[in-house]
Amino acid sequence: LLRWDIPRLFSPNGMHSIWRLSQILRRERFQIVQTFFPDSTIFGGVAARMAGVPIRLGCFRDLGFWQTPAYDRALKQVYRMMTGFLCNGRVVRDHFIGAYGLPPERFEVIYNGIDCQSLPWVPHEGPTLHVGIVGNMTRRSRGDHAEFRIPFARA
């Protein structure tokens, strides 16, 4: 486990940290780097490209609501460095293809959830347990819309 203190990605310390990560990726001969969040895509995507990592994957799970204008500008450049993208739905895929001009052939859609038809039915007796989860619902204002994040689970 490697830990870096990077209070601001867009800073001399942030750029130096990207260079340090690229050196580790090169030295250890990483073959795949997959990033998950916008900041990790900038950090890991650039470092992986600098290190010559052959497979660089970015992930999309929403329509980029969390991105600031600075991140948006950086991501437009970094996405061109990625060799592929994973997303959780066609709407998300289509959004990023259109918004960033990314090649559709670099995308794979892996849907959230489980294909219930593929699971065997097991009859049971007694009380049932219901679990519900809603995440990322904290109220935050971003320009012309509001976001809500209210973590919820009930068992």
Put the structure in a nutshell.
With 155 residues, this protein is of the alpha/beta class. It has helices at residues 12-27, 38-51, 69-78, 90-100; strands at 32-34, 55-60, 84-87, 107-109, 132-134, 140-142, 145-147, 152-154.
Work out the strand percent.
15-25%
Main β-sheet description: 4 strands, parallel
As a whole number of angstroms, the C-alpha radius of gyration is 19 Å
Helicity range of the residues?
25-40%
Widest sheet: strand order?
1-2-3-4
Structural write-up:
This protein has 155 residues and is α/β, with parallel strands linked by helices. The chain has four helices and eight strands, in the order H-E-H-E-H-E-H-E-E-E-E-E. The strands form three sheets. It has a four-stranded parallel β-sheet with strand order 1-2-3-4. It has a two-stranded antiparallel sheet with strand order 5-8. Strands 6-7 form a two-stranded antiparallel ribbon. Strand 3 (84-87), helix 4 (90-100) and strand 4 form a beta-alpha-beta unit. Helix 1 (12-27) crosses helix 2 and helix 2 (38-51) runs parallel beside helix 3. The longest helix is centred in the first third of the chain and has 16 residues, at 12-27.
Fold blueprint:
Blueprint: H1 12-27, E1 32-34, H2 38-51, E2 55-60, H3 69-78, E3 84-87, H4 90-100, E4 107-109, E5 132-134, E6 140-142, E7 145-147, E8 152-154
Parallel strand pairs: 1-2, 2-3, 3-4
Antiparallel strand pairs: 5-8, 6-7
Helix pairs in contact: 1-2, 2-3
Provide keyphrases for this structure.
single chain, 155 residues, four-stranded parallel β-sheet, 4 helices, two-stranded antiparallel ribbon
